[in-house]
Amino acid sequence: MRIPLIAGNWKMYKTIAETEQFFREFLPLVADSTHCEIAIAPPFTAITKAVKAARGSRVAISGQDVYWEKQGAFTGQVAAPMLAEAGCRFTIIGHSERRQYFAETDDTVNKKIRAALAAGLESIVCIGELLEQREAGQTEAVLRRQVDGGMAGLTAEQLTRIIIAYEPVWAIGTGRTATPDMAEEAHRFIRALAATRFGKEAAAGLRILYGGSVKPDNIKGLMAQPDIDGGLVGGASLDPRGFATIVNF
Ligand code: PGA
């Protein structure tokens, strides 16, 4: 049984004060939401406040990115043990915006997953094709390359602490969601791929989230698909009411 996970990725939004305000409004709305796990990934500066605000609730906190070294002269980076110490349970890795603007590659994704595992964090690993890749019929090849590169050398046991987020890049922040059928097709492909790499049992337990313009009015259709195990929500996670509606799909 895969427990659904609805995760909010705040990207570079919300101050510490806004984070506090969000939790004040959001927590009562999801107090009885035992049907799924809930996570929020605030900016680094607001993580400590979010952890404190969410204490005693069912909401877990996530980093948006992590660096693979434990410490050192790496200006601007944050290490996995630092996220763990701050109270994070998860970290997002390989988001398409990191790939697009900050030179993230499947190789750096792999290093970051290993660092997260070593620090006891669960990874939400993002993969997904560009519009031109989909139109050229390359979606499966892209997903295969990202899974094989990002997860290279990992064991089936380690896969239990990894969540994949399928996020077609053309659907992120565009208001253009993949239809539930399109998303399901990609999720089914990813699960079948995971089965060939990690075994059937590991693949059956792997949670695969959909991301890309998830909104209160499309989450239900997505969650009705057998291989969609939750959502990674950007823009719509910023509003406590809207995000609670998504959580309570
Ligand atoms: P969006 O972002 O929901 O705003 O499309 C999703 C994501 O980037 O994780």
Describe this structure in words.
The protein is of the alpha/beta class and 249 residues long. The chain has a single domain (5-247), classed as Aldolase class I (TIM Barrel, Alpha-Beta Barrel), CATH 3.20.20. The protein is 43% helix and 16% strand. It contains 12 helices and 8 strands. The chain has helices at residues 16-29, 47-54, 80-86, 96-101, 106-118, 131-135, 139-150, 156-159, 180-198, 200-205, 219-223, 240-247, and strands at 5-9, 37-41, 59-63, 90-93, 122-127, 162-166, 207-211, 230-233. The protein has an 8-stranded parallel beta barrel with strand order 1-2-3-4-5-6-7-8, surrounded by 6 helices. The longest helix has 19 residues, at 180-198. The protein is globular.
The neighbouring-strand order within the major sheet is 1-2-3-4-5-6-7-8
Kindly report the oligomeric state of this protein.
single chain
The low-confidence runs, each spanning 5 or more residues with pLDDT under 50, are: none
What profile does the largest beta sheet have? Answer: 8 strands, parallel, barrel
Bound molecules: 2-phosphoglycolic acid
Number of helices: 12
Looking at this structure, what is the CATH superfamily? Answer: Aldolase class I
What's the CATH class, please? Alpha Beta
Examine the coordinates and then state which fold CATH places here, giving the name of the CATH topology.
TIM Barrel
- What is the helix fraction of residues, given as a range? 40-55%
Please tell me the CATH architecture by its name.
Answer: Alpha-Beta Barrel
Q: What is the N-to-C succession of helices and strands?
A: EHEHEHEHHEHHHEHHEHEH
How many beta-strand elements? Answer: 8
Rg is 17 Å
- The structural domain count equals 1
β-strand amount: 15-25%
Give the terminus-to-terminus CA distance.
Answer: 18 Å
Output the structural class: alpha/beta
Task: State mean pLDDT (0 to 100 scale).
Answer: 97
Identify the overall geometry. globular
